[in-house]
From TrEMBL, chain A:
Subcellular location: Cell membrane; Membrane
Record protein name field: ATP synthase subunit a
Pfam families (UniProt xref): ATP-synt_A
Family: Belongs to the ATPase A chain family.
Chief localization: membrane
GO annotation, cellular component aspect: plasma membrane; proton-transporting ATP synthase complex
Species the sequence originates in: Alcanivorax nanhaiticus
NCBIfam families: ATP_synt_6_or_A (TIGR01131), PRK05815.1-1 (NF004477)
UniProtKB/TrEMBL annotation, chain B:
GO CC list: endomembrane system; plasma membrane; proton-transporting ATP synthase complex
Family: Belongs to the ATPase B chain family.
Coiled-coil portions: 40-122
Main function: F(1)F(0) ATP synthase produces ATP from ADP in the presence of a proton or sodium gradient. F-type ATPases consist of two structural domains, F(1) containing the extramembraneous catalytic core and F(0) containing the membrane proton channel, linked together by a central stalk and a peripheral stalk. During catalysis, ATP synthesis in the catalytic domain of F(1) is coupled via a rotary mechanism of the central stalk subunits to proton translocation. Component of the F(0) channel, it forms part of the peripheral stalk, linking F(1) to F(0). The b'-subunit is a diverged and duplicated form of b found in plants and photosynthetic bacteria.
UniProt KW keywords: ATP synthesis, Cell inner membrane, Cell membrane, CF(0), Coiled coil, Hydrogen ion transport, Ion transport, Membrane, Transmembrane, Transmembrane helix, Transport
Name of the molecule in the record: ATP synthase subunit b
Gene: atpF
HAMAP family noted in UniProt: ATP_synth_b_bprime (MF_01398)
Amino acid sequence: MAGSNAQDYIKHHLGNLTYGELPAGYVRECDGRDTQTLTESTWTFACNGNEAKDMGFMAFHVDSLAWSGGLGIIMCLLFWMGARKATAGVPSGFLNFVETIIEFIDTQVRDSFHGKSKLVAPLSLVIFCWVFLMNLMDLIPVDFVPGTFSWIMTSFFGWTAQEAYFKIVPSTDPNITLSMSFSVMLLVIFFTIKAKGVGGFVGTLTLHPFEASNPVLKALLMPVNLLLETIGLLAKPVSLGLRLFGNMYAGEFVFIMLAAMMGTWQFIGAWPWAVFHILVITLQAFIFMVLTIVYLSMAVEDH
Amino acid sequence: MNINMTIIGQAIWFALFVFFCMKFVWPPISRALEERKQKIAEGLSAADRAERDLELAQEKATANLKEAKEKAAEIIDQANRRANQIVEEAKDAARTEGERLVAKAQSEIDQEVNQAREQLRKEVAVLALSGAEKVLGGEVNQDAHKQMLEQLAAEL
């Protein structure tokens, strides 16, 4: 709807609303506006994909952060409401729902994580519910919210439709998924150091998988081990984050393609895909949670 | 698909939500669940105990009932025996009384018979004397014939 053809439409739907810093001397070439050269570095919204790229690291995806934060706050409030009503007596309707989720998470954690930690269970709860909610945004028809946003911005704030990027599925943004998975990696390192000490952590990186009892040989094998284990350590969060991102991005892409090709009739294809996607969003949230528990469990346990 | 500061913003969100759930969501709910589990366990054990108590009480009641029945039977038995005894005693008393009365009557009868006999004897003696007087036409000396008369009277 925003683009003139299907390709533009798809590109626009895959772009984030980016707020970042453009350097001094940058030439802004926005559709529907005059070309403008910046005299000093400026924080602003990117008006197209190139600008978003040129902003480099000093930029935020406002839509991703707002939606993930908003969904997280809603999730926390719901659970908090449940927690306030928590009693040992007969649970009411909503508390029942909350308890079902809590017990489900608790079972998963007890099954996989054998250490003692006050962090792992709430962490798993947040990951499962939050990722699920973020994925759930995928089921809202692709143009509802971006269309509304575009209409508001063009009507009241003088934006062009081209500038009004808006993605409502945070988990189709690799920043979001990789941020969570690397947070998990930091926790894994923290848990390893807490359980085995700094020496133990260094040991896990350098003394496996090639072991030797001879000290000289051991020293020789250390660089090799370090290389392999570092790759292994980094592969975990990368695969964890990219798996979620890939699944959600692919699903979102199918919805956008259907919308681009079929317009108003997209629901013919989108409805069955959405039904199937319910399975995917739940499964991906579950997998993210279970793998987090498993990684943390591996960090705490001895091999 | 640019990697940028979003990654840090999201990490901050993540940390905030995990912290919030760790502090305000997980502990109260899991505590409530734990307490409920305990409560249910207590309730179940209390029910078990009550069932056992009931069984014991029933056993006791049965025992009491049995004892009472035995006691009642014993009392009835005793009463029966006592009644029999009383009846026997009454019978004995009646019999002895009867015998006594009969004996008394008999002795009275004997006495009367003897008296009558004595009377008769005396009268017979007088009669015989007067008869003999009449027959002999003379006086019979009472003193002289006393012995004979008495012998006669004794023969009657």
